[in-house]
């Protein structure tokens, strides 16, 4: 005899596995830890300060004097 399968449970299980695979894909594409975001922001700020500090002509609005 064949096993009886509850289609409602089968559909729910299939939908759950599809959501899990989609979530895993999104985590790999978009997921970054808070520390990684802070590190990237800090390096960006340092680079901006470095470039601003080595400009030949300074903006009158930004100058302290």
UniProtKB/TrEMBL annotation:
InterPro entries cross-referenced by the UniProt entry: DUF4169
Ranges of Basic and acidic residues composition bias in the record: 33-65
Region (Disordered): 18-65
Source superkingdom: Bacteria
Protein name: DUF4169 family protein
Species name: Aminobacter carboxidus
